């Protein structure tokens, strides 16, 4: 049996079953590679069949979370304050409202004018939201260069009284944000064309992301194909799926194959996407877009985080191996702790 929703006990036998289930699903479901399931039926089932929210969430857990499959869910935002107060009647972000109410907030803005910069590569600057909105207006008037994307704004922590959204029942079991100091609850705001380069999420966590307004294009690769994203030395990852093929250097020799295997979807306003663990993805805002997202871990994906940390520890130990003879065993252990 898979763990029940909200079951926070970590049982190794269960994790092993989940790992086996994931492999079986990945091997036995080739159609998954080419599609995202638009799971509006999940929400409809709630009202049509009188299914209670917890049962619906359980179905989401079984069909998508436990199987590490992406999905788009509609209809989770109807009572969100952000959807009422942060959006203008024409569907664009209400920047005047944001500036009036949150103008003093200090945010990070990343220049995403080059899609080749790679994850973490674009120049980042600290500014107030007020200055960001001023920049936005000048950008729209064609007066400034660059394409600044406001990312990873810890809005819920900075404005705890505001309650911009309600955590969807699907995503309740959340060890990362319930127990860790650095919570991962974010707001993103960017003009049309702003971009997040290819990456897998922190600690191989899940993420969900909801468009308060605007549209995004997601390109995502199942984890078993991750090796296709690297250069010939297996060191550097391509900045996106869309790097021009350069057959003379063969820099990313398997990227064309990755493009064949990736799935692509357009996320419309009000839709929520579930990004499973270890799926590399890049995201482009097709319109001026405001979104809310969380990263999280629970019993279904914590093995991804564990494997990542164990791998990094092994690499760190290998990197300092030459110091071993100069230290006592306990000093060496403390070096790689
Ligand atoms: O919306 C974006 O630009 C990136 C979001 C993302 O990478 C995520 O939610 O995992
Ligand atoms: Fe991400």
From TrEMBL:
Kindly give the InterPro entries that the UniProt entry links to this protein. Answer: Cupin_8, JmjC_dom, JMJD6_ArgDemeth/LysHydrox
Give the signal sequence positions.
none
Gene Ontology molecular function: 2-oxoglutarate-dependent dioxygenase activity; sequence-specific DNA binding
Occurrences of domain JmjC (ranges): 156-313
What are the recorded Gene Ontology BP terms? positive regulation of translational termination
Q: Which is a Pfam family this sequence falls into?
A: Cupin_8
Q: Which GO terms describe its cellular component?
A: cytoplasm; nucleus
**UniProt cross-references to PANTHER family, sorted A to Z:** 2-OXOGLUTARATE AND IRON-DEPENDENT OXYGENASE JMJD4, ARGININE DEMETHYLASE AND LYSYL-HYDROXYLASE JMJD
* Family under the similarity heading: Belongs to the JARID1 histone demethylase family.
Q: What is this protein called?
A: JmjC domain-containing protein
